[in-house]
Amino acid sequence: MQALLENLKALGQGRLIALGVTGVVLVLATFFGVRAVLEPSYSTLYRDLTPSEASRMVGALEGAGFAVQVDSSGSILSVPQEDLARARMELAGQGLVGDGAAGWEIFDEASGLGMNSFMQKINRLRALEGELARSIQTIDGVDAARVHLVLPEREAFSRERPQPSSSVIIRSRAGHQVNLRQAQAIRALVSSAVPEMSPGRVTVLTANGETILAEEGTDVAEVTQQSLKASVEDRIAS
């Protein structure tokens, strides 16, 4: 023991400090290396979730024994890669399916190799629907939204081009109700984003299947009580 101490003293203070730093670095490297190997690799389960959706999904997954990670924005859920399929099945079994639709990032994820013009059109349609749904979900009182676009192409040798149309399904947050003025704003948003689409070709529905704004030309009798109620509430508020 005495000989060891003498040898350490002979190294000098500078070498002892360097030796100590090297030892600490090796210990930390070993610790983080083992941790990285043992820690599971997480994969994205759902993205673009609303806070209420994320909260319900996290509760359901943790209750079923899954490890869940949520990003800082609270809109992206991740689970260990080996649990990805089972987690989706668990949420589907409880009726919890993410409403987050893909936007323009669909072109970042898709490979251009082997993609024909038809697939490109489908991806463009899906991306536009997803971006519109995201914009609608930023409106106060809207919890989730789905946008369906119909963009017909002009048939060969036809002079007339069919008009595009759209249906928007919205789910209100608890304690809120989308009024007629907000529905008109949604109609204007969708029609302005699609070339040659008139506002009257956009139908706005609730998740309960009730019509807030019907397509122009629809019989008044077909407009549901929800539309009339929203109109009355909007007049009272103004």
Automatic annotation (TrEMBL):
Entry keywords, A to Z: Cell projection, Cilium, Flagellum, Membrane, Transmembrane, Transmembrane helix
Residues passing through the membrane, by range: 16-38
Gene Ontology biological-process entries: bacterial-type flagellum-dependent cell motility
Record GO cellular component, one term: bacterial-type flagellum basal body, MS ring
Q: Does the keyword Acyltransferase apply?
A: no
Q: Does the keyword Transcription regulation apply?
A: no
Which Pfam family, just one, is annotated for this protein? YscJ_FliF
Superkingdom of this entry's organism? Bacteria
A single Gene Ontology MF term assigned here is: cytoskeletal motor activity
Predominant location of this chain? membrane
Q: Which residues form the Flagellar M-ring N-terminal domain?
A: 39-212
Q: Report the subcellular localization.
A: Membrane
Q: Which NCBIfam families match?
A: fliF
PANTHER family, sorted: FLAGELLAR M-RING PROTEIN
- Tell me the protein's name: Flagellar FliF M-ring protein
The root-end lineage is: Bacteria, Pseudomonadati, Pseudomonadota, Alphaproteobacteria, Rhodobacterales
